[in-house]
Every structure is written in C-alpha cells, then in structure tokens.
Amino acid sequence: MYPNTAGAFVRAVEAGQLLADTDPAAVQAAIAKYDNLGPLVTTAMALSGYPVGPVNKARIQRVAQAMLQFGFMSRQDASQVEQGTLVAAIVGPAS
Fold it and tell me: What pLDDT tens digit does each residue of the chain (95 aa) get?
C-alpha cells in the first residue's frame, strides 16, 4: 500500500468537499465542463449538500474490512486491515 499517496487523496477529497460546499459556482462550472452542459442547465440544477470535515476513520475501516473479505485487497494486507493500522496510516491521527 502507499499511505502517503492515500493520505494525499484523503486530503484532496476533504478539500474538494469544502470547495463544493462553499462555492456552488465551482460545482456548476465542473458539471458544465465534464458533463458538457450549458449554463442554463447548470444554474437551474439543485445541488446536494457535500459533507465537510475529516474522513471518518471507522467508516473507512469498515470499507477496508469489506474489501478484504470480498477479495478486493490482498491477503498480505490482512493483518494491517484487521489491526486498523492500514486505515490509521492513510487517514491520520486526527480523524
């Protein structure tokens, strides 16, 4: 596993959630760009709320355990997943 890369991903998701929650125009611009929609459509869209705050370590741990159980993670990661050290390395101590 690559905990530094995963940690950077978590930080990027948190930053993206904050931006999406505080800047509806940025969300509309992204939708327009990637979904090829015009401004009449994107300004009329109802935007959902975006969760803001740190990633929840317990929820990520449950995902890691399910991934391990259903074969989406290697058995070599089993002890780290079961001990919670893999998620702790990814999410960090503050979450």
Answer: 677 887 788 888 888 888 888 898 898 888 899 998 888 888 888 887 767 777 788 888 998 899 989 998 888 889 988 998 888 877 766 55
Task: Say which DSSP state 36 is in.
Answer: T
**At a CB cut-off of 8 Å and minimum separation 6, what does 1 contact?**
77, 80, 86, 89, 90
Q: How far is the CA of 57 from the CAs of 29, 33, 64, 71, 85, in angstroms?
A: 31, 32, 10, 21, 11
Query: What are the tokens at 69?
Result: 């159980």
- Report helix, strand or coil for 94: coil
State the Cα–Cα distance between residues 56 and 50, nearest whole angstrom.
14
Structure token digits, residue 80? 């780290």
DSSP state string for 6-25: HHHHHHHHHHHHHHHHH-HH
